[in-house]
Amino acid sequence: MANETTDQTDIAKQLYGRIAGNRWVQLIAGVIGMIVISNYQYAFTLFTPGMRQQFVGVPYAKIAAIFSMFILFETWPVPVAGYLVDKYGIRKLMILGSIGILVGWLLGGTVAKSPFDLYIYYGLIAGTGAGIIYISTVANAVKWFPDRRGLAAGLTAAGFGGGAALTIIPIAATISSMGWAHAMAVWGVAQGVIAFIMALILRHPPTGWKPAGWDQLAQKVSKAVAQSKVEYTWTQTVRRPEFYLLYLMFLFVATGGLMTTGNLSQIAKSLNVASAKMLGIAIVPFTATLAGITNALSRIMWGSISDKVGREYTMTLAFGIEAVLIFLVTQITGNPMLFVILLPFVFLSWGEIYALFSAITGDVFGPKNATANYGILYTAKGASSIMAGYGAALLAAAFAGSFTVPYYIAAIFDAVAAILAFFALRPLVRSRIAKEVSEVPKAA
Fold it and tell me: What's the pTM?
C-alpha cells in the first residue's frame, strides 16, 4: 500500500517534471496569478476621483457602475470558463485570461472617453480575463490539496484579497504622478505579462493523483469536514438544494465587503473623514492597504480553521462577527482613527468567503468538476455586485450621500447567512453525505 501511494504521488512529477509536478509550486503560481488580478477589484476606488474630474457632469452612480460591470463579467461568464478549464486544461484558459486583463486596462487607460467605454474595457474585457484567472487558480488549489482544501483555497484567495496591499500605495503614487488613465495602462501591461508567465506553469493534477499518505490523511480530514464520495457534474450540482442555499448565503455575505471595496472613497466622504491623513498618507489608500492585509489574512486564517472545525461552524462564527462589524461602520462618523481601525477588521471577517465557499464546493460536490461547479456558485458575487456597487450608490444618493442604510441592509444579510449556515446548511449537507454511495448520481 505504501508503494502504491508513493507511485500515485509521483505521477505528477513524471508527467510535468519536478517543478511543475510539485503541488506547492502549483499553489505558489496560483497565488501570484491572483495577486496580479487583485487590483482590478481593490484598486478601483483609487481611480474614481480622477474619473469624476474627467467625466464632468456624470453622476457618481454611473461611475460606480464600472465596478459593478467588472464584477458582473468577472463572475457571470465564469461557469463557461470553468467548464472549459475542466475540459481542456488550465493553461489555455489562463493565457486567455492574461490577455484579457492586459488589454482591458491598456484600452481603459488609453482610448476610453466615457464611462460606457470603461464598461467595455474595464468591465467586459478585464473582468472576463480576471474571472478566468480567478476560477482557474482557486479550483486548481482545491484539486491539488484534498487534505487541506480550506488552507489551499485560503492561500490562493489571499492572493486576490491581499495582493492589492502590496500595490495600493504604489498605484496611488502612480496616479498622482501621471494621472489615472496612464497609471491604468502601465499597471495593466505589467500585470498581464506576469499572469501570462504563471499560465505557463499551471497544471491540473493528473488522473489518479493523490497526496502522499492520503489514506491516513483522508481519515483525519473526515472527522471535521464532510466530503462527498460522489463527483457531481455541473448539471447535477444545480439540481441539489444545498447548492441554492450556498448561493443565497454567498449573495448575502458578499454584499457588505463589495460595497465597501467599490465605494471606499465615497464612504470616507460620507463619514466626514475623507480629508484626513495617517502617517502622511491619505486615509483611503492607507486604509485600503491595511484592509488588503487583513483581507488576505482572513482567507488563510478562516480557511485553516475550517479544516479543523468544519466549514459550517466556521461560516456561522465569521458571518456573525461580520454582521456586528458592518453595523459598527455606521457609528464612526467624523472619527478617522476608528475608520482606519474598523475597516480592516471588516475585511478580516469578510474575505474568508472566497476560501470557505470554494472549499465547501469541493467537499460537497467533489473535486473532479470543482472548476465548473464553483464557477456557477461564484456568479453569486456578480449578483451581489449589482446591490453593492450601483445599487448602494443609488441608495446612498437618496439619503444625501450617506451609506448608513446600505450598511444596515448588509448587516442583516450577514446575520441571516450566519443563521442559515448553522441551522440549514450543516444538517442538509451532513445528512446527504452520510447516505450517499461512491457512485455518480444518475442524470435526470
Answer: 0.81
Cell numbers representing residue 174 in the block: 502612480
Note the helical H segments in 200-282: 214-222, 234-237, 241-270
Question: CA distances (Å), 244 to each of 57, 425, 428, in order?
Answer: 41, 10, 12
Measure the CA–CA gap between 24 and 27, rounded to whole angstroms: 5
Q: What is the DSSP string of 151-188?
A: HHHHHHHHHHHHHHHHHHHHHHHHHHHH-HHHHHHHHH
Long-range contacts of range 55-62, CB-CB < 8 Å, 24 or more positions apart?
Answer: 55/114, 55/115, 58/114, 58/115, 59/397, 60/266, 60/393, 60/397, 61/390, 61/393, 61/394, 61/397, 62/115
- Dist. CA 53–CA 50, nearest whole Å: 5
Measured between alpha carbons, how far is 307 from 303 in angstroms, rounded to an integer?
7
Pick from 82, 88, 90, 102: nearest CA to 20: 90
Residue 70's pLDDT is 94
Residues 373 and 357: their CA atoms lie apart, in Å, by: 11
**Grid cell listed for 85:** 478549464
DSSP per residue over 336-388, as a string? HHHHHHHHHHHHHTTTTHHHHHHHHHHHHH-STTHHHHHHHHHHHHHHHHIII
For the domain with range 2-210+221-435, which CATH number is right: 3.40.630.30, 1.10.10.60, 1.20.1250.20, 3.30.540.10?
A: 1.20.1250.20
The CB density around residue 182, as the number of other CB atoms within 10 Å, is: 14
pLDDT tier, 222 (very low <50, low <70, confident <90, very high otherwise): low
In the structure grid, which three cell numbers stand for residue 193, read together? 505579462
Q: How far is the C-alpha of 260 from the C-alpha of 392, rounded, in Å?
A: 10
Distance CA 365, CA 311 (A): 14
Q: 176 pLDDT exceeds 50?
A: yes
> Domains of the chain: which residue ranges?
2-210+221-435
Q: Look up residue 219 and give its three cell numbers.
A: 481519515
The share of the chain scoring above pLDDT 70, in percent, equals 94
